[in-house]
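Aim 2 progress. For Phytanoyl-CoA dioxygenase family protein, the working sequence is reproduced below.
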Amino acid sequence: MGYIKSAALEETGYVVLDSYQQELDPKEWLDIEFVDWKSSGDTRFAPLASAFGEIECNGFWNHTPPRTDKDGVWIPAQTEKAPNLTRRAQEPGANVGRCRIIELQPNTYADCLYNLHQDDNNRLNPDGTGWVVRGFFNLTDDKDSYFVLRENRTDPSEETRIALPAGAQLIIDTQRLWHAATHVGTDPRYCLITSWESGPQLDEYIAKYNGRAHADNVAVPQELLDAGQAEQSRRIAARAAALAARGREEVTAMSEA
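Predicted structure tokens for this construct:
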């Protein structure tokens, strides 16, 4: 039967929506509770919706009963302090799974490449239902930072780098694309991340905000790109050797992200 997917994401695995006027909204992410939760870098997360409405970030499949990343339960203690962020996450009208704000500390392009990962959004997702994708709404004005997307983790030839000023809005099939952010700066980057189920509601939302399947690539000096690629290769090899010495294999899909 296959999953219901958005045609807008078929070509590149992502769309860029019209920019949001983030500067008009209060900084609600400063008022809600964050918990330590490591993803691709030095991170914390503030959940707005979780498996059972608790302030935690675990994958829904790690709860009892286990289920896919859908039907998230909103957390009143968080959403009451962040009504605008909650409204934005709910606006498409699509089924929402996990919804949270990520706090990412500054990192390098090499760090980003090493942290590239695919999500496990559709674990336990029944065939014939909507494919789970993720929305990324950049909250802070990180003009020098950029999202990195690759079809192949270690192949730089088809890398996409998307700028992350305040109000940048992306929807990404993060189970298809390897992704992470290069955050240049001194202060943390904050971004609203929402798991949405693909279907007519999400398609209408993408069309409403003129979703585009191609973004201008952020320009990065070639020597920085080359050095980052070399460092990614070195770190992956070093980790693989360390795990092999312990009789383990690397798990590259960061299913808890």
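The chain is about 20% helix and 25% strand. This observation will guide construct design in the next reporting period.
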